[in-house]
Amino acid sequence: MFVLSRTSYTIPKPAPAAITYPSDVDDTTWELIAPVLARQTNRGRPRVHSDRLIFNAILYVLRGGITWRMLPKSFPPWQTVYGRFRTWADNGTWQNLTTTMRQTLRLELGRDPNPSAGIIDSQSAATGPGAGIVGNDAGKKVRGRKRHLLVDTEGLLVTIVVTPASVQDPTAAPEVLTEAKEQSSRLSQVWADGRYRGKLIDWAKEELGITLEIISRPPGQKGFVVLPRRWVVERSLAWLGRYRRLARDWEAASWSVCALIHIAASNLMARRIARYRALYQAA
Q1: Residue 36: what pLDDT?
Q2: What ranges do the domains of the chain cover?
Q3: CA distances from 130 to 15, 61, 78, 180, 256 (A)
Q4: Cβ-count burial of 269 within 10 angstroms (0-12 exposed, 13-18 middle, 19+ buried)?
Q5: pTM for the full model?
Q6: How far is Cα 160 from Cα 94, in angstroms, rounded to an integer?
């Protein structure tokens, strides 16, 4: 009878399975994002880690609300991830990604790629320790930074400006409106709440050709009420709040906050485009 020697047979170990996380982008979504992140030059050292792996690591930090140093070992070293994140922020890639995703999604919805109307608003967020220059929002009783953003009528991000919370909305609005006009030359109508009254209305019309329309609460109205147009930007802020790193401002610099908001907004838009295209293919 044949006896198998213990020393002549070893059980092969299975190949380690790739680790995935709920924050990872799927193939369809990545096909939309990849061309924007692709390296535009062959100069310098070849990249060891793929753009997709780095982007998934950034999303892991953004969705989970963790620090860069707490990235799991399945991702590249946190220094590499943060370095690529900062490089893409410095060369305008995150802004470009937001613009590309917004234009693509608007085309999917049968709209002109560049919006002609938008809604402006701000949100004050408390900061963590070591947050750099901050201020006090006396109205909201928040010490931290203020995020001034303008979205189109679909709630898609057009531009974002971050200031200390002490900066009043009419003071930051010219920069927001100017950047929004640069993103879309068709922009001619913007809705806002009562905080944007005053000289800003005339300035926007004369300098940028934008009609700033104030939407006020009905006289005598008490408690919560859904106001026309203004609810769109409030919904956009709620969308961004799903990313835990944005629930509170933990960044040491305002550029980092802007970059993370662009990433969150563009990721939401890319996923929405992917869902629409999957529905079209199924139909």
Answers
A1: 95
A2: 93-218+226-282
A3: 43, 18, 20, 30, 13
A4: buried
A5: 0.89
A6: 12
